[in-house]
Amino acid sequence: MTVLAKPYLTDVDASVEQLVYVREDEYTVARMSSEGLAGFVASGRALAGVQPGETLRLAGEWEEHPRHGSRLVVRRCERVVPSTVRAITLYLGSGLIRGIGPRLAHAIVSHFGERTLTVIDTEPGRLTEVVNIGAARQAQIVQAWAEQKEVAALMVVLQGFGISPLLATKIYQVYGNDSRDVLTRDPYRLIGQVRGIAFHTADRIALRSGVPEHSPQRIKAAVLDRLETAAARDGHCFLPLPALLAAAAGLVEQEEELIRRAVDALLAERRVVVETAPAGPGQVVYAKEQHGREVALAAHLARLLRARSTLPLRAFEEHEGLDEDQRAAVNLALTSTVSVLTGGPGCGKSHTVRVIAATVRAMGGTVTLTAPTGKAAKRLSELTRLPAMTVHRLLARQPEREEGTLFQQSPAEADLIVVDEASMLDLQLATRLTAAIPAGSHLLLVGDSDQLPSIGPGSVLADLLRVEEVPRIRLTRVFRQAQDSGIVRAAHRIRAGELPELPGRGGFWFEELDDPDQVADRVVHLATEAIPRKQDVGRDQVQVLCPMRKGATGTAELGRRLQERLNPAREGAAEHWSGPSVFRVGDRVMPIRNNYDKGVFNGETATVTAVNPQDRLVEIRTDDGESVAYTFDELDELTHSYAISVHRSQGSEYPFVVAPIVAEAGGVMLRRRLLYTLVTRAKAWVVLVGQREALELAVHRLGYRRNTGLALRLALSLES
């Protein structure tokens, strides 16, 4: 890369016209305009978090990029108040001030000129002089301006801590005018209260604010962070005390004795629970919330198992087409208040559930079919020919007041409640579900115990299968129609720890490539060109699944490339950048957090229908036809679904699946359950592209067991 002869620039004011590219590490490329320079491109991590319309004071040097030409590599960047008519118009019309769009911005600046911002700040009543601004719009603009000023002041404070403008906005949304006071007095409060702020960020603020490294406040925050990280990243409900001490000590670089004191203090404050395991790691430590859920779930399951059935039992009539195990499964579901039905693909679980549901209905009983995700519920409905809903929709109802969503006391009042894809139930959702089921109702959990466990903490289905007192049956016979499927054959070989037939046939195919960049290129080509053309299907029939998030073959980079191929930027079309993601009309997205107020839940899929800079909104329509609006500040609740993780694909099936299989970063995510889950997401074809040794690694490497105490608690509850 050549450094041009242009001088090092200082104090050059320029407006952000458009964001071109934002990388995961916040490296940003933007098109800029300035009174003193022709339009130019600026790049660098110093631009992290900038938005179109902002005026920046830049310092850097010019470089010649081999592909993109001359650009300013920014070393320092600070936000300044725009002062020219063009810059003010761009700023007001960018959507940064809610209630002002491009047309209204032009009208306001045409009326007030370079004094526009002064008028808004000191004489806001004069805004009504502009056509189309009444009292309501004027009040909205004044409020948005005041909020923007406070956030801007907060950004100045946070700039030295490396905090992005997006996070500064979120801090302000939570604490309002108390934000700076919270940052000064107790920055560790941010953890858990502000989405996107974890221990490292809060700790950076605290240390630079003068909090001592050995502060009890700091060390307690580190202990809680290690418990939260273990739950969020690895699904653990607890950590053995020695492991927790070591992890927290490494995080804050302090002696383990200080960590032990912090654990004792948290125990006294009732923020953690310490127990002694009857067999295993000795003392273990739970976060209070995880412990409460685990205890409650064991109690609810024991209550249901002990209850006398309310099902109006009559003789079970034999159904044609059921084998011995399926008949046993039907009888088990009819006679047990809690039962588990497991089995791999092609073993007839869905047909068995259909017979169970039909039998209960024929007896005069009521049936509720449910699943953890919308797609799983829809598939269950199609297979059983009965209505089905998500567990969240079963439990949740719209609030009558503005106090938030309430949970009904017993919304699951049916004689039989069936939960499909039960391996996806995490501790929290399973606790809510069982709490809502009255004693005497039958609960049937259906799933494949060889698939990945839930995204959230816990391993509910696996734990139940470890308790002898829980009735269960496993279907093992693969029916003739399924035997012809290459996907089913490959899945059963993987489950047994055997390599599938290579390169494959009948719906399963492996294409060997060693270089990760070539693998990524091939995946993009297969998903966007080769498979749609050869199979004569729409591109929306092909889903890319990734074992990893980072790297050339991870969800972030492949998702970006697929978006640029399938839904590129269009001249004049509105778009909005949120971190490294850009949202455009037509994008396929999915919520990654449950939002009961909006009525959308983790794992649902949707399409972006509008990007509205004036009201700072992105509107989506779910595949169920519901229209939902997200503010620009809420967009971290959405992710694009062009390429998704295998975990997020659980409960869904796709006609065609393409997946990279490479050992980047040591292939830490490549495990048997992940590969098995990946392959079984496809209905017609699954194409794996990558390294043979990576495929072998995934087949032979078992996953770790999550730290949970549910099985032991339930067994002890049933003994007492």
TrEMBL record:
<comment type="similarity">
    <text>Belongs to the RecD family. RecD2 subfamily.</text>
</comment>
<dbReference type="GO" id="GO:0017116">
    <property type="term" value="F:single-stranded DNA helicase activity"/>
</dbReference>
<dbReference type="Pfam" id="PF18335">
    <property type="entry name" value="SH3_13"/>
</dbReference>
<keyword id="KW-0067">ATP-binding</keyword>
<dbReference type="InterPro" id="IPR006345">
    <property type="entry name" value="RecD2"/>
</dbReference>
<dbReference type="InterPro" id="IPR050534">
    <property type="entry name" value="Coronavir_polyprotein_1ab"/>
</dbReference>
<protein>
    <recommendedName>
        <fullName>ATP-dependent RecD2 DNA helicase</fullName>
        <ecNumber>5.6.2.3</ecNumber>
    </recommendedName>
</protein>
<dbReference type="GO" id="GO:0016887">
    <property type="term" value="F:ATP hydrolysis activity"/>
</dbReference>
<keyword id="KW-0378">Hydrolase</keyword>
<feature type="binding site">
    <location>
        <begin position="346"/>
        <end position="350"/>
    </location>
    <ligand>
        <name>ATP</name>
    </ligand>
</feature>
<dbReference type="Pfam" id="PF23139">
    <property type="entry name" value="OB_YrrC"/>
</dbReference>
<dbReference type="GO" id="GO:0005524">
    <property type="term" value="F:ATP binding"/>
</dbReference>
<dbReference type="InterPro" id="IPR010994">
    <property type="entry name" value="RuvA_2-like"/>
</dbReference>
<keyword id="KW-0413">Isomerase</keyword>
<comment type="function">
    <text>DNA-dependent ATPase and ATP-dependent 5'-3' DNA helicase. Has no activity on blunt DNA or DNA with 3'-overhangs, requires at least 10 bases of 5'-ssDNA for helicase activity.</text>
</comment>
<feature type="domain" description="ATP-dependent RecD2 DNA helicase SH3">
    <location>
        <begin position="560"/>
        <end position="620"/>
    </location>
</feature>
<dbReference type="GO" id="GO:0003677">
    <property type="term" value="F:DNA binding"/>
</dbReference>
<dbReference type="InterPro" id="IPR041451">
    <property type="entry name" value="RecD2_SH13"/>
</dbReference>
<keyword id="KW-0347">Helicase</keyword>
<dbReference type="Pfam" id="PF14490">
    <property type="entry name" value="HHH_RecD2"/>
</dbReference>
<dbReference type="InterPro" id="IPR027417">
    <property type="entry name" value="P-loop_NTPase"/>
</dbReference>
<feature type="domain" description="ATP-dependent RecD2 DNA helicase-like helix-hairpin-helix">
    <location>
        <begin position="147"/>
        <end position="238"/>
    </location>
</feature>
<dbReference type="GO" id="GO:0043139">
    <property type="term" value="F:5'-3' DNA helicase activity"/>
</dbReference>
<dbReference type="GO" id="GO:0006310">
    <property type="term" value="P:DNA recombination"/>
</dbReference>
<feature type="domain" description="ATP-dependent RecD2 DNA helicase OB-fold">
    <location>
        <begin position="12"/>
        <end position="82"/>
    </location>
</feature>
<feature type="domain" description="UvrD-like helicase C-terminal">
    <location>
        <begin position="640"/>
        <end position="689"/>
    </location>
</feature>
<keyword id="KW-0547">Nucleotide-binding</keyword>
<dbReference type="InterPro" id="IPR055446">
    <property type="entry name" value="RecD2_N_OB"/>
</dbReference>
<dbReference type="Pfam" id="PF13604">
    <property type="entry name" value="AAA_30"/>
</dbReference>
<dbReference type="GO" id="GO:0009338">
    <property type="term" value="C:exodeoxyribonuclease V complex"/>
</dbReference>
<dbReference type="Pfam" id="PF13538">
    <property type="entry name" value="UvrD_C_2"/>
</dbReference>
<dbReference type="InterPro" id="IPR029493">
    <property type="entry name" value="RecD2-like_HHH"/>
</dbReference>
<dbReference type="InterPro" id="IPR027785">
    <property type="entry name" value="UvrD-like_helicase_C"/>
</dbReference>
<keyword id="KW-0238">DNA-binding</keyword>
